[in-house]
Structures are given as structure tokens and as C-alpha cells.
Automatic annotation (TrEMBL):
Descriptive protein name: Acetylornithine aminotransferase
N6-(pyridoxal phosphate)lysine: residues bearing it: 243
Entry keyword annotation includes Kinase: no
Subunit: Homodimer.
Organism annotation: Pseudogemmobacter humi
Length: 392
């Protein structure tokens, strides 16, 4: 019999009732060290006092009014994002998937209004993940995500990840936009080489193609930079942001240059909840905190500690781990076996990690994880590897 909750997830038998910092607790009092942070969402950990304060203060004033009206909290957050990035303008959503929808619509509308309605083709990459809407699955194109949902939205083409020759051949003056994650998350923590990002930017400029960066997972301080693309110095025309920006409150944002957004006039897009006062009050606090240079430097420092510890795990347990990749606190451990087995063994040792494609175990802790929790996490991962070895 189908359960009351539609069974689309392969859920672990763990139900948490409270959390603080990098720790989660089940109803029967078992504590777990959370290195997944809700898949890169709880940027400041669980029940972060600054965010609880921002949310409760706003909750006592105003929850929702509608985008029919001016929303000062939204304007403040948009200004904060514009101040800190390449962007001139921002649209707020409730999730990452909705940012994919708007990025796609904005790019097509741009060329339409520019007198080139035939420029509809998006170039995306194998291993990408942009969400679960019909547009986002068409963009990512993987068999697993699209099977049974056809006919798909036309105009999407996936190139092999990081294939420079294919990219040179594919981007032409008929392309609408290129969409990519500067560091693929679900695809297995794969950072796009900076030189290739530079070349893609140049090809886009030469052909009038828009460049969309999906920073839903790698953005908001995760790499030790406010946005991952800053590591390469390449800026996009349109950027998708979600996950960390709400610190656990549903919030997403599409950031764009004035040029890319110029066709988006009144009535061309909208959302009932997107950018509501509660979400924006929390989002502003998150943005202020994670964009502080000292905070970002600390993310990079913590990332280096975690990375070094993971490198020694690889050295100690070559039968399970073969390499480390990623940036800052967006790290992946390449495994010799299905990462899901490592995740399950982690449950037994009281540590939460996330599996990704390409045999990678993801480590995406809260950006303010205390150093002692990093040490504890490494020791628990060591026990995980020992237990897998003993069971082999
Ligand atoms: C890079 C990337 N883009 C888009 C999404 C979709 O975001 P959401 O699940 O909030 O709709 C995700 C979610 O994992 C993601 O990692």
C-alpha cells in the first residue's frame, strides 16, 4: 500500500527532533555529527542563534503580503546581493529548481526581445543537476531523471563534462545560453577548471551567448569565497542561488546583469511566496554573515584542515578511499565502493555524510563547524573505514 508520504525518496530510518550547530539528535537521544548540513543548506548549522533571532523578530511583525506590494525586506536583501556580486538585479524564489526555471526563461526571453527568437539552444553538461522541474531535468538530461517524463522541453544539449573541444564546437551565434555548475555537486564534487571557464566566457562573449552559473550548491560561502566563480575570476550573466542563502529557510535567488535581465518587464515572471518577508529577513542575515571576509577566510581555513585530514584518511584506507576533491567546505572523498555503503556505515558511527555520483562521498558541513567537530568527524570517518574493512 502506498504510504501517506509519496515514496519518491530512499530515506534512511533516522528521524531527528532537534539540532544545534553541527549536531542532530533523534527522539531517543542518539546524537549525530552532521557533515551534510541538509545538503549544503544549513550554512550556519542547526538552530543558529542569529537566524533564530532574525526569523522570530520578523515572524512577530509580518509573514506575507504578496509581490503586489513593495517588500522592504526583499529590497534590502537584493541590495546586499547586488553590492557583493557582479549582478545588477535579483528575483527571489523558494528553491533552486525555480531558479533554473527563471534562468531558462530569462535567457530565452533575452534573445527573443533581441530579435533572435530562434536562439533557443542551451548547452549543459553531463553530470549536472539543476533541479526536478521539467525544464531543469531537460537541462541536466540524465536518463535517471528524465525517464518516463517525455516529451522533454526541446532545445537542451549535454556535452561531456569539461570537454574543451566539444565546447568550442558547440557554442555558436545560434546558442541561447550555457548553463553549468562551477563545481558540480550531485555530479560528484567536480570543479570546472578555471581556464576552461575563462574560455567559455570568451566564447559566450564572441557569440552573444548568455552564461548561466548554477551556484545553488557551491555558492554562499561554501568554497571560502562568497561565490565559487570568484575562484576563477569569471563572472556569469545570470546566476542561480538557493540552499545556503536561507540557512534552512526555503529561499532562492536569480541574480543577473542589467543586460541579461533587460527583457524581464512587469508581468513576465512571478511567484506567490518568492521573496516573502520571513525568507528575506533570514536571507539578509545569512548574507551579511557569510560575506564577511573574516568568515570566508575561516571557511577556507576549516576547509584546509578537513581536506588535510581526508588526505590522511585516503593514505590510511586506500581500500575504501582513493582521493579528495573540491574547494573549501565542499569536499568529496572518492570511494572504491558505492558511497551509499559508506553513508550507511556512517550512520552506525554517528556521522552524517551524503552520497554523490561518480563514487563520491560528499562532505558539506556547516560553514561555521567548530574545529573540534572537524577532528571528531575525521575520527568517526576513520572508524567508518575500519568497520568497512572488518566487514569485507
Ligand atoms: C546545483 C543545484 N542546482 C539546483 C538544485 C535544485 O535545488 P532545489 O532542490 O532547492 O530545488 C540543486 C539541489 O540539489 C543543486 O545542487
Amino acid at each position: 500500500m502506498i504510504p501517506p508520504v509519496l515514496p519518491t525518496y530512499n530515506r534512511a530510518p533516522l528521524a531527528f527532533v532537534k539540532g544545534a550547530g553541527s549536531w542532530l539528535e533523534t527522539g531517543d537521544g542518539r546524537r549525530y555529527l552532521d557533515l551534510g548540513a541538509g545538503i549544503a543548506v544549513n550554512a550556519l548549522g542547526h538552530a543558529a542563534p542569529e537566524l533564530v533571532a532574525a526569523l522570530t523578530e520578523q515572524a512577530q511583525k509580518l509573514w506575507h503580503v504578496s509581490n503586489v506590494y513593495t517588500i522592504p525586506e526583499q529590497e534590502r536583501l537584493a541590495a546586499a546581493l547586488v553590492d557583493r556580486t557582479f549582478a545588477d538585479t535579483v528575483f527571489f524564489t523558494n528553491s533552486g529548481t525555480e531558479t533554473a526555471e527563471l534562468a531558462i526563461k530569462m535567457a530565452r526571453k533575452f534573445h527573443h526581445e533581441n530579435g533572435q527568437p530562434e536562439r533557443i539552444e542551451f548547452i549543459a553538461f553531463e553530470g549536472a543537476f539543476h533541479g526536478r522541474s521539467t525544464g531543469a531535468i531537460a537541462a541536466a538530461g540524465s536518463e535517471k531523471m528524465v525517464k518516463g517524463y517525455g516529451p522533454l522541453m526541446p532545445g537542451f544539449r549535454q556535452l561531456p563534462w569539461g570537454d574543451a573541444a566539444a565546447i568550442r564546437e558547440a557554442i555558436t551565434d545560434r546558442t541561447c545560453a550555457v548553463i553549468l555548475e562551477p563545481i558540480q555537486g550531485e555530479g560528484g564534487i567536480r570543479p570546472f577548471p578555471p581556464a576552461l571557464l575563462k574560455e567559455i566566457r570568451a566564447l559566450c562573449d564572441q557569440t552573444g551567448t548568455l552564461l548561466i552559473f548554477d551556484e545553488v550548491q557551491c555558492g554562499m560561502g561554501r568554497t571560502g569565497r562568497l561565490f565559487a566563480h570568484e575562484l576563477s575570476g569569471v563572472t556569469p550573466d545570470i546566476m542561480m542561488v538557493a540552499k545556503g542563502i536561507g540557512g534552512g529557510f526555503p529561499l532562492g535567488a536569480v541574480l543577473a546583469t542589467e543586460h541579461a535581465a533587460k527583457a524581464m518587464s512587469a508581468g513576465t515572471h512571478g511567484s506567490t511566496y518568492g521573496g516573502n518577508p520571513l525568507a528575506c529577513a533570514v536571507g539578509l542575515r545569512v548574507t551579511e554573515i557569510v560575506s564577511e571576509p573574516a568568515f570566508l577566510a575561516d571557511v577556507a581555513r576549516k576547509g584546509a584542515i578537513l581536506r588535510q585530514g581526508l588526505e590522511s584518511l585516503v593514505a590510511r584506507h586506500p581500500e575504501t578511499f582513493t582521493g579528495v576533491r573540491g574547494e573549501g567546505l565542499m569536499l568529496g572523498l572518492h570511494c572504491t565502493r558505492a558511497p551509499a555503503d559508506v553513508v550507511s556505515a556512517g550512520y552506525r558511527e554517528g556521522i552524517l555524510t551524503v552520497a554523490a555520483a561518480d563514487n563520491v562521498l560528499r562532505l558539506l558541513p556547516a560553514l561555521n563547524i567548530p574545529d573540534e567537530d572537524i577532528t571528531e568527524a575525521l575520527s568517526r570517518l576513520d572508524k567508518v573505514a575500519e568497520s568497512l574493512k572488518a566487514a569485507a
